């Protein structure tokens, strides 16, 4: 098994609040793993640790073989995290957002065009500021940015939120395509029935720990 996420006894703190209390998590390349649990259980914090965005206080682990405690910047260059804000610059157009992210990894204009076409944010939408897009269009733009950034692990916090049934179906199809192309997906979702059908495995987060 090619393990891309390997966390052992990870403790993380938000302010004075213990967000994660000794989490163990192992994810293999090509898996789709669903994190489920009540609000405040630590799902988002775990995604942020995996993305190199939240430091750990204790424990150890690697993401893509990179040390999660000391090399968070290196982790951030190889994974993609999408939270509720979608990681977009709202004052930029769709194309400008894509070209910004493309420049961070040296992606070509052809890669940008292909990602935008795949997520149906090309044509007229390409020149629209992301602040003016619908929720579904923003989510598609954000997923296009992960394609452009060549993210090896997709870390998604509530990717189905605010979308209609057709939009949720499209997200699921894109995630399966990403895994087929070699990516790994870890998502937190309140769409438990839908997400459990999508996921290969479910990990329950409760009280800052994983089961």
Automatic annotation (TrEMBL):
Pfam families documented for this protein: ABC_tran
Residue ranges of every copy of the ABC transporter domain listed in the record: 5-211
Any GO BP: cytochrome complex assembly
Keyword terms: ATP-binding, Cytochrome c-type biogenesis, Nucleotide-binding, Transport
InterPro entries xrefs: AAA+_ATPase, ABC_transporter-like_ATP-bd, ABC_transporter_ATP-binding, ABC_transptr_haem_export_CcmA, P-loop_NTPase
One of the record's GO molecular function terms: ATP hydrolysis activity
SUPFAM superfamilies: P-loop containing nucleoside triphosphate hydrolases (SSF52540)
Family of the protein in this entry: Belongs to the ABC transporter superfamily.
UniProt xrefs under PANTHER family: ABC TRANSPORTER ATP-BINDING PROTEIN, ABC TRANSPORTER ATP-BINDING PROTEIN NATA
Protein name: Unannotated protein
Organism: freshwater metagenome
